[in-house]
Amino acid sequence: MLTVTTVNVNGLRAAARKGYVEWLAAADADVVCLQEVRAERDQLAAAVREPDRWHAVYAPSSVKGRAGVALLTRREPERVRTGFGVAEFTDAGRYLEVDLPGVTVASLYLPSGDVGTERQEEKERFMAAFLPYLRGLRARAAADGREVLVCGDWNIAHREADLKNWRANRRNSGFLPEERAWLDQVLDPADGGYTDVVRALHPEETGPYSWWSYRGRAFDNDSGWRIDYAMATPGLADRAVKAYVERAASHDARWSDHAPVTVVFSA
């Protein structure tokens, strides 16, 4: 079995004070993918930076206090790669991958955007550069007899079922037609060739949402977005047996505005 959890921690230092440490200690996962770490290694307490029984690798952003991704693995990685070969994003704290026996696992924090701003332009540049990398990663892995799993905060809701208020968000970043079409390409068997594992296991379900704004009563009303994905190559996706979101029991029990998303694969 292989169990992988992905979660945007919304600042690892803050999450550690609110319950992340206790959550990780109880986790059954073999791999944990973190996004929006927002800290350098030396800014983290030792128990957070190098948790017991985990191998931890980090890719912080060169802009302090922003982005940052990490991977925690039970087994020591065979190889670690930061970035995906595009200079603008190499030190942006947006992509990190490791090779484990038979599988490459990546933690992704795709930029969020805002229509009509430089942030949206950055997001579009990232998407344009990242899709060719995903294609190549899949091809290289297949040639080596490996599978691929890219987990993280993709900052795009793919379908109407992936966010509560989809009608009001049709012109907003995160649910733009061109962003959703880009995910279509990622998931097209003749193009990117990846599978959205959670949706494949829950094809008719609304959500399950993985992010809720801290504003208003979004969490209490389950007015959320499903933007945290586990995208797998077909051979690995076919082995998926369970996928679920660890939604907190109450608003005050949350340690991030995102919830952990876990997928379980058979051997």
From TrEMBL:
<dbReference type="InterPro" id="IPR036691">
    <property type="entry name" value="Endo/exonu/phosph_ase_sf"/>
</dbReference>
<keyword id="KW-0479">Metal-binding</keyword>
<feature type="domain" description="Endonuclease/exonuclease/phosphatase">
    <location>
        <begin position="6"/>
        <end position="258"/>
    </location>
</feature>
<keyword id="KW-0378">Hydrolase</keyword>
<dbReference type="InterPro" id="IPR004808">
    <property type="entry name" value="AP_endonuc_1"/>
</dbReference>
<dbReference type="Pfam" id="PF03372">
    <property type="entry name" value="Exo_endo_phos"/>
</dbReference>
<protein>
    <submittedName>
        <fullName>Exodeoxyribonuclease III</fullName>
    </submittedName>
</protein>
<comment type="similarity">
    <text>Belongs to the DNA repair enzymes AP/ExoA family.</text>
</comment>
<dbReference type="InterPro" id="IPR037493">
    <property type="entry name" value="ExoIII-like"/>
</dbReference>
<keyword id="KW-0460">Magnesium</keyword>
<dbReference type="InterPro" id="IPR005135">
    <property type="entry name" value="Endo/exonuclease/phosphatase"/>
</dbReference>
